[in-house]
Amino acid sequence: MQEQINEKTVAISIKTARLTAEVLQKAVKKLLDARKHKTPKEYKGKQTLKCRTAN
Q1: If you ran DSSP here, which 8-state letter would residue 45 be given?
Q2: Second label for 54, Cα 20 to 30 Å away, from 9, 10, 23, 31?
Q3: How many other CB atoms are found less than 10 A from the CB of residue 32?
Q4: Which of 30, 32, 54, 31 is nearest to 43 (CA)?
Q5: What's the rounded Cα separation, in Å, for the pair 29 and 27?
């Protein structure tokens, strides 16, 4: 009886770890996609070439 409980507990913890890894992977992919599609910063006003390349 105790052995079955231990086996089920281990199985649940493995499934939970797998689920959280999948959620984390999806979140990182979404973050990287958002960074990839981000528009470049637009400069306004007078700026020197040296100032633009420093940013």
Answers
A1: S
A2: 31
A3: 10
A4: 54
A5: 5
SS3 labels along 18-43: HHHHHHHHHHHHHHHHHHHCCCCCCC
3: its two tokens: 């052995």
Hey, is 55 helix, strand or coil?
coil
* pLDDT score of 52: 60
Domain locations in the chain as residue ranges: 2-39
Task: Tokens for 29, please give them.
Answer: 């992919």
For 36, half-sphere exposure in the C-beta direction (CA atoms, 13 angstrom radius) is 6
Tokens representing 14 are 């493995």
